């Protein structure tokens, strides 16, 4: 029997009890996932205690969040007893992405992107567990076979002005992300992705030109996925990554495929889904076995972060050390152009924020001795990074991200003056860098500092930080998880 108005919603109450959540906790999770202001913190009390039904699309949003947290499907019908409808604009990220790994399968996915274009108002909900692995499963288990285009064709350099223009544009697009963050120029990069998709959809290209266009499509898709991830639009990021992986597969580009799988792993770890992150990271490692050393090192650095999020400190250390050994052996071989960003210092800083994550987790669990060790090492590594570069340097997004992590490391160690100094520099970059992923770290720093408001450095800095964060939320209004 359905819930009548004024009666408690037992289904919602049961889900909250199972998670140990209050209605306020549900509201805060909805605001983190779908963007600040999605719901007031008091509204879910009315849903639970008085049988209230929120406006669309909140019923579907609540069902999605609870499903993700519980690890099982909680349908809209179950949660609201038939009094709320599904929201057709909220769709899982894996929608229409599970077809065959063939040229025709890729063409259908490309057509979906092209026809959607700027008028697509769907919000893509990030998937996890079997939903996430299903969109790459045929690649992982080998049933996808080989792509249609051989490496000989993809390496062709025959003159084609249109293809050359597309290829020439890709590195310039990557610089937009480095300097301004993923959220600022994602719509433009997405439009470039669809433009190349339109060329592929029209067809009629010689094999060499088609293979070069597919490779460019894969590279732009990887970049768009990374930018959507940085913008905290995780469902959209998964769609870009999954499409890019299929394109890379069609031109048999194993290094790029490994790179994309590692991105999916890093995204899953950042969303606190360590099992997904490890499965994808280990798949990326297998795919990278014959790749150039920089690709292998980058992949291993992502896998190391997945191990850190899972609390597997020994595996983290082993994998991080192997990545470091590889990068030290780097010669002047044929490295992919898109690995331009990976330097020895970049690898150290990736290990640095993984160590701070480990240290903060150890600190919360009461293992203070190991926590101090991890935090000290992580802070030392990050202190050598990009967090102090001037405002004209092109690495602004990296500087913001690493600075936010370093401030969290200092905060966890009780070094409040340093936490405020580093945090102030990082927060100032929010004026030019739109990176909700980085802003989320500064929101965590603000939470840390609110417990220390008697400290004079905190009293001076915290109001500035909160004012800056009020203009730069950690989430977006698109579907994300």
Explained architecture:
The protein is mainly α and 481 residues long. The protein folds into three domains: 79 residues; 162 residues, no CATH class; 122 residues, no CATH class. It is built from 23 helices and two strands. It has a two-stranded parallel ribbon. Helix 14 runs parallel beside helix 16.
Number of strands: 2
| Count of alpha and pi helical runs | 23
Amount of beta strand: under 5%
The N- to C-terminal Cα distance equals 32 Å
Question: What labels describe this entry?
Answer:
481 residues; 3 domains; disordered C terminus; 2 strands
What are the SSEs and their pairings?
Elements: H1 10-19, H2 23-34, H3 43-50, H4 58-70, H5 76-80, E1 90-92, H6 103-116, E2 123-125, H7 130-134, H8 137-140, H9 151-154, H10 161-180, H11 182-202, H12 207-230, H13 234-250, H14 254-270, H15 274-287, H16 293-309, H17 313-328, H18 344-365, H19 368-383, H20 396-412, H21 416-428, H22 436-450, H23 456-471
Helix pairs in contact: 2-3, 2-4, 6-11, 6-13, 10-11, 10-12, 11-12, 12-13, 12-14, 13-14, 14-15, 14-16, 15-16, 16-17, 16-18, 17-18, 18-19, 18-20, 19-20, 20-21, 20-22, 21-22, 21-23, 22-23
